[in-house]
Amino acid sequence: MLCQLWRARQAPSLPSWWVPSRTLTNGFPIAEFNPNYALFLPANGRPSTFLINPASSVNPDHLSFFRFCGRIIGKAIYENQRLDCYFVRSFYKHMLGRPVTWHDMEAMDPDYYRNLKWILECQDEEMLKALDLTFTIEESDFGKTNVVELIPNGSNIPVTQQNKQEYVQKVCEHKMTSGIQDQLQAFLEGFHELIPSDLVGTLFDDKELELLIAGLPTIDVEDLKRNTEYVNYSSQDPQIKWFWKCLENDFTEDEMAWFLQFVTGSTQVPLEGFQALTGMRGPQKFSIHKAPGDKTRLPSAHTCFNQLDLPDYDTEDVLKAKLKQAVCEAHEGFGFI
What we know:
Blueprint: H1 2-9, H2 23-32, E1 40-43, E2 46-52, H3 62-78, E3 86-87, H4 89-96, H5 105-108, H6 110-121, H7 125-130, E4 136-141, E5 144-149, H8 164-176, H9 181-192, H10 197-203, H11 206-214, H12 221-226, E6 228-231, H13 238-249, H14 253-264, E7 278-279, E8 282-283, E9 286-291, E10 300-302, E11 307-311, H15 316-334
Helix pairs in contact: 2-3, 3-9, 4-11, 13-15, 14-15
């Protein structure tokens, strides 16, 4: 749809670097994610999901490389080609011109996100004071620790109950935006040479953009079933049998991709199959937990743990309807837990 709208809108004057061959897009994941280029880093707990390396300036040509990466991804979208690459959620939002939030930190570094969440939820002033936090952040630069002030005179401003929300906001803003601003700008300059910013941001959300770039995954339900753990359920419970029947017979290819996003946060299937699925603590199989309480509630998911909380519905029809509703609402922007 994007390609059709773009071509209907105007016929682009292709820049001199344009290569009609598909070899560029096919080679992108191998070359640009090579650690020798220092452009991207694997996300914590997601070794095949990437984020911009804030220390990429160690490569003197890093901005040229980022601009080239943007052109390659723009070219792939324009030609309706797929790339074998996945990025953290905040990166897709930057491509769309959408604001990032502190919740997007979860995909970058789940442990760090959990610490920030604890700060926000802590109501004990003395405990918060004991952390001795100020409006600064420490960054490691090849063995050297640099202290960055998040606001003017930040090293002299303690974090308190009154300003902790601003602190979390500034930390996340630095890590996901301002701390990589030059790299982002270079990437987006290349990307927007092919894909206008005012077009892509109106057509897709971040989850749809991931599917547009990486394509629909091939999901082997039997492989997923073999690598699933159950908590307060067994494989012989009727709810579990209904669940697998629903995935196998009632979900479309699109809905299967949305389901994978719903429970793992990404459409990516590990190359080694679901036995190699990872979470915030390393290897983490997909798990289905019996959700206690109200049977009218929707299933929910914890993407850091590849976990589905499934109420013990009374009928197969109810389970199918509730599961589809949860997956579709999450895809439409209601979000993950």
